[in-house]
Design goal:
- The chain is of the alpha/beta class.
- It folds into 2 domains: about 10-105, no CATH class; about 120-560, Rossmann fold (3-Layer(aba) Sandwich).
- It is about 35% helix and about 15% strand.
- The protein contains 18 helices and 17 strands.
- The strands form 5 sheets. Strands 4-17-16-5-8-14-13-15 form an 8-stranded mixed sheet. A 3-stranded mixed sheet has the order 1-11-10, with no helix packed on it. A two-stranded antiparallel sheet has the order 2-3.
Length: about 550
């Protein structure tokens, strides 16, 4: 796994499919489990056998050949699934397919790795390195709940990221794939590699955002957008270090929503997992987007996936929980747990003054971003634009006085660079105060889902989520047990980032003796591992945990 630079050029161009003869000719000459063959091709084992018997006129037992797998794939072309043409038409793909099958058939003895024994498995810590290595080291059947937010497709280029050698032969960081299909396929591969370490009753809570297929710059953090607007930066498309095109896809057009979360859920069904729910968490503050022909995106999706048809789910425990920092029932919610999660701000959260500053900041950034795309005949007068730039700097200074760091919600990236023109070229009234046109007010009044606070930017991670989110997932998926119980359930975050899942776990364990569980995390970037460990250490040594989880007037420690 090699470290890479910050440059990236994503061109979502679909390949021409290989012919059936080309696929079958590239099948390795060996056998594999029929159930595993069905999982990776993307269908139930019974349907796989039906195709072999009735479609191919063959016979099949507990094992089958790679050639038969290739024939079933070439005949059905299920999508989304783990398999792709490259698994049969390239040497790297053939080798990767064999390695994946060997891992799935004998997970107790993974290639080039050895699993930790129960005595060697130390919990309540973050492991530095790749999730691929950790999936091969964590003891089998040991993880009760997976709670994470992985990199989204084409949204970030991190200062430290690493190339992953995937089974299809491609070598690319997770999230940096050329097409949505590649990203979805790699997500499915991660789930298959994760499965052996899950208990039968485990649940997976996978927070993944949707993406529009648009021509856009890819930034390291959402702070970059703010800096670009404040400094009035102008760079040509050719000079951008990281960018994503929007043309060349098989069917996605410019401005199309990719529907990635739902396609991941469908692919996981094909892999044998159970897609139990698509949960929506609504963000209370979102950046005004530079589009005027659709609603503003004000939510993200949380997939609830189970490893079997029966699994651990403690709705009663959630219904009885009143502590907001635990993700308990908010004032917005009744006693039925619904698929739209609306979590309260913790005491002392976003103040009215902060909210007003954030709103005006978003408005000004919106206008300046839009102005840069207009014809010269529609440009703002130079004096007006100068006033807006000055007001922007004033607002940032005011917000800095309100609290230690800039609210992440106003800096959330909007990937749309090609936008529809507004109905009105005038977005300001007297002085430098702004007001939206009626058409924009209508569009922004209703995000796709009609609440949960967003994370503060204090901990300098590019994509944090609020601590209440993993807290609620833990509440629902981990059983209460006695403090002396040696058989602890384990929560795992494979993309730990700034440590929000661990903070939520430590918070719950510390304030409720009825929860006796452990947690672990994986993080590939050393500085993020240290950042998370510092947060956890601070929490463990805090003399007053109730004060720690309460947001005071200047900091938001409970948010990642």
């Amino acid at each position: 796994m090699a470290e890479k630079d910050d440059s990236r050029n994503i061109k979502p161009r679909s390949d021409i499919p290989a012919s059936a003869d080309e696929i079958i000719a590239g099948a390795p000459d060996q056998n594999l489990s029929t159930d595993i063959a069905a999982n990776i091709v993307g269908m139930r084992s019974a349907h796989f056998r039906k195709i072999v018997r009735e479609g191919l006129g063959g016979t099949i037992g507990k094992t089958t050949s790679f050639e038969t797998l290739a024939k079933v794939y070439a005949r059905s072309r299920p999508s989304p699934s783990v398999l792709t043409d490259k698994h049969f038409t390239t040497e790297e793909g053939q080798t990767g397919l064999i390695d994946l099958v060997e891992y799935l058939e004998d997970p107790a003895d993974p290639p080039n790795q050895s699993r930790w024994s129960s005595d060697e498995f130390e919990t309540n810590q973050i492991f530095l390195g790749s999730v691929f290595d950790h999936f091969s080291q964590i003891p089998l059947n040991s993880i009760q709940s997976v709670i994470t937010s992985p990199p989204y497709w084409g949204m970030r280029v991190y200062s430290e990221e690493f190339e992953v050698q995937w089974s299809d032969g491609t070598e690319v960081p997770f999230g940096g794939e050329q097409t949505p299909e590649d990203y979805i396929r790699h997500t499915l591969e991660l789930f298959l590699r994760l499965r052996p370490i899950l208990t039968d009753s485990a649940t997976i809570w996978w927070n993944v955002g949707d993406v529009y297929n648009t021509r856009t710059e890819i930034r390291e953090t959402s702070m970059d957008r703010k800096k670009a607007v404040v400094n009035n930066e102008e760079r040509s498309w050719a000079n951008l270090d990281a960018k994503r095109d929007s043309y060349g896809h098989e069917y996605l057009k410019d401005k199309d929503l990719t529907l990635i979360p739902f396609r991941i859920a469908q692919g996981l069904q094909r892999c044998g997992f159970y897609a139990r729910s698509v949960i929506t968490w609504r963000k209370e503050k979102v950046v005004p987007e530079t589009v005027s022909d659709r609603p503003t995106t004000g939510h993200e999706n949380l997939l609830l996936i189970s490893n079997s048809s029966t699994y651990q789910f403690n709705e009663k425990r959630w219904r009885e929980e009143e502590r907001k920092s635990f993700g308990g029932r908010s004032r917005h919610e009744n006693k039925d747990l619904r698929t739209v999660w609306e979590l309260d701000h913790i005491k002392g959260g976003l103040k009215e003054q902060e909210a007003a500053i954030i709103d005006e900041l978003g408005n000004i950034m919106d206008v300046l971003s839009e102005t840069n795309k207009k014809d010269t005949s529609e440009m703002l007068p130079a004096e007006t634009e100068k006033q807006l730039q000055e007001r922007l700097k004033q607002l940032l200074a005011l917000l800095a006085e309100e609290r230690d760091s800039i609210q992440q919600s106003i800096l959330d990236p909007e990937e749309h660079e090609v936008v529809a023109k507004r109905d009105s070229p005038n977005h300001f009234s007297e002085g430098s105060e702004l007001e939206r046109s009626p058409s924009n007010q209508d569009l922004r009044r209703g995000p796709p889902v009609w609440s949960m606070p967003v994370a503060d930017g204090k901990y300098k991670h590019a994509a944090p989520f609020p601590v209440q989110l993993p807290a609620r997932c833990i509440l629902l998926s981990i059983a209460r047990s006695a403090s002396g119980d040696s058989d602890q359930e384990v929560v795992y975050d494979p993309f730990m980032g700034s440590g929000t899942t661990a903070v939520a776990a430590e918070n719950i364990k510390r304030l409720d003796s009825g929860f006796n569980f452990s947690w672990i995390g994986s993080e590939i970037v050393p500085k993020y591992k240290k950042l998370a460990e510092d947060r956890i250490s601070q929490m463990r040594t805090d003399e007053d945990p109730d004060e720690w989880i309460t947001i005071d007037q200047t900091t938001m420690k409970d948010f990642s």
